Amino acid sequence: MRRYVSGQESTERTPFKMIDLVKEREELIKKHLAGASGREVVYAYTQLVDKFIKEQWEGIISPTAVDEVAIIAIGGYGRKEMSFYSDADLLILHVEKPSVVLKDAIVHFVQSLWDSKLKLDHSFRTIEECLQMAKREFFAFMAMLTPRFLGGNRALFEQLIQTLNKYLIIPHRREILKNIWERREKRHQHYNRHTYFLEPHIKEGRGGLRDIHTLRWGTIVAFGREELPFSSSKEKNYLEVALDFLWRVRNHLHYLSRRENDELSFGYQEEIARFLGFKDSPGIKAVENFMRAFFTHT
Q: Which CATH number among 3.40.50.10890, 3.30.70.100, 3.30.460.10, 3.30.930.20 corresponds to the domain 3-169?
């Protein structure tokens, strides 16, 4: 990996960080297998990825170029919902005319993350490019609704939020909310087919994680905040319990698959049921009790 020290480039190799990322993920998997909550695991893995990305970035970026860019977590990574093999959605926000030094640093930064086996979904854009992308691509826009600043120029990060609010959210609030709702309805129609009742999709299915994301997106657009407007503490507790259950199921599905996977197919249902402690009851198999619980939570 290339390193920059006082603007001078060196070629110091640091393989230990790659080993640490893999090793610490395996340690977190052990905690999951020992009974850690779904929330605890997704937050801990997000923090692990945060730490790794920041270390890589701070070791590579030249002090002369740091004000030209902001490193931003978006999407599921921005929401701190990282399961073991989730993509790290990263927005590399840069000034209109980035220097050669910055461009070179970004190439080596991205390569260092790939070399570490971190699943990366990244983009390299200006604020204007982000605005135009948000106008064209619904999910790219939704991903930018939950950004987290990781490094670089914080003022650039704040400027992106202000720009999206001024030129997109405020003048088009009703239209955006309508679009969010209509897409939810279409998704429900698609995943309402019989096959998805037998092998549900944890993320996209009715009552799954995407429905909770949709509530957050709507709340951000309508009220300018991420906290959902619960009518009571009981309602909030119901959602938190359901979320934790879904995250636990998803974490174990990633562990069993050794890849990003949100499809609760037959091949995994019995093993996840055993892991979660479901037992046979009179006339009902453990896996059936598990699936009943799954649909109760969704």
A: 3.30.460.10
